[in-house]
Design brief:
By secondary structure, this protein is α/β, with parallel strands linked by helices. It folds into two domains: 21-72 and 165-233, Ribosomal protein L1/L10, rRNA-binding domain (Ribulose 1,5 Bisphosphate Carboxylase/Oxygenase, 2-Layer Sandwich); 79-162, 3-Layer(aba) Sandwich (Rossmann fold). 34% of the residues lie in helices and 20% in strands. It contains nine helices and nine strands. Helix 3 (88-94) packs parallel to helix 7 (153-161).
Length: 234
């Protein structure tokens, strides 16, 4: 095990040593660099980091949204649904992993959260209020603005399963977002990138002053971070 860790560490350090810290990479250059430096047996995720000129502590500077990536995420997204019995069959057919009301509530209260997305029909929001303090901090609370509170729960499940991702600004104006797997084609990764980049740009809040998109970085799960040339992304 120690030998494996040592070998992995050497490869990570080797990849990092090849990064030019003064260079601003084009998107294609960054993608190809990370593909060339990949050394793991598992399919790494390609991650984006946006540093925005906002302070999310102010309500008029919050940046949040949902976007469907055209090439999907390459990730198996587990979806939990709160709905009444008349919608259960449609939700099952759409691919929901967990469906329930009392059972799901008790599971969440006990600390078991085995899902990545939570969807609810509007008539279930009163019940979900019981676990809002648990789901909220984890970014899992259903929200009508994100399309996760909707009477069309089956459609919402299909969207979540097919590559719909949420982005939300965190402390220091940072947004983290995955844009697919390293095994995706360059064209698919570029298409996914442009989709979420445009969505973040359009989500610029009214309270944002000065430079909004300050820095953008691209990295893989085990790879180095590369600073992208924002001017080239426009």
């Amino acid at each position: 095990m120690q030998q494996l860790k040592s070998t992995g560490g050497k490869k990570i350090n080797s990849a990092r040593s090849k990064v030019d810290p003064a260079k601003l990479y084009t998107l294609a250059e960054a993608i190809n660099f990370l593909k060339e430096q990949a050394f793991t047996k598992f399919d790494q995720t390609l991650d984006l980091v946006f540093r925005l000129g906002v302070d999310p502590r102010h309500s008029d500077q919050m940046v949040r949204g949902m976007v469907s990536l055209p090439a999907g995420t390459g990730k198996n997204v587990r979806v939990a649904v709160f709905c009444k019995e008349d919608k259960i069959e449609a939700v099952k057919a759409a691919g929901a992993d967990i469906i329930g009301s009392p059972e799901l509530l008790e599971s969440i209260k006990s600390g078991k959260i085995d899902f990545d997305v939570c969807i609810a029909s509007p008539d279930m929001m009163g019940s979900i209020g019981q676990v809002a303090k648990i789901l909220g901090p984890k970014g899992l609370m259903p929200n009508p603005k994100l399309g996760t509170v909707t009477p069309e729960v089956a459609t919402a499940v299909k969207n979540a399963k097919s590559g719909q991702v949420e982005f939300r600004v965190e402390k220091a104006g940072i947004i983290h977002a995955g844009i697919g797997k390293l095994s995706f084609s360059e064209n698919d990764l570029i298409s996914n990138f442009k989709t979420i980049y445009d969505a973040v740009q359009k989500a610029r809040p009214s309270g944002a002053k000065g430079i909004y998109m300050k820095q953008v970085f691209l990295s893989s799960t085990m790879g180095p971070g590369l600073k992208l040339d924002i001017a080239n992304l426009q």
